[in-house]
Design a protein that fits this description.
With about 80 residues, this protein is mainly α. It has helices spanning about 10-15, 20-35, 40-50, 65-75. It has one domain. Helix content is about 50%, strand content about 0%. The chain is elongated.
Length: about 80
């Protein structure tokens, strides 16, 4: 089975998952780190923008594109929806 090539440097895998129960972390690793890792938002961001651009508080299931839009709006001075 394929393993995500970002697993060594993944902030979620290396900082948040160790604090989770073995069952929860095992299920998350199975879903996002092994096999179907292309569904992981961290993997998508790292592939598109580089691992150095993945936020430390990133989550494999969050919608990175929403975060990026909000970040861009704020940087452009647009604070409303």
């Amino acid at each position: 089975m394929a393993k995500c090539n970002y697993s060594e440097t993944c902030p979620f895998l290396n900082t948040k998952m160790p604090a989770m129960s073995l069952v929860t972390s095992g299920l998350l690793a199975q879903k996002y780190c092994d096999g179907n890792f292309t569904g992981c938002e961290i993997h998508k961001t790292a592939t598109a923008e580089g691992m150095e651009n993945v936020r430390e508080d990133a989550n494999p299931v969050e919608k990175a594109e929403v975060y990026n839009k909000v970040r861009n709006w704020i940087s452009l001075g647009r604070y409303g929806w």
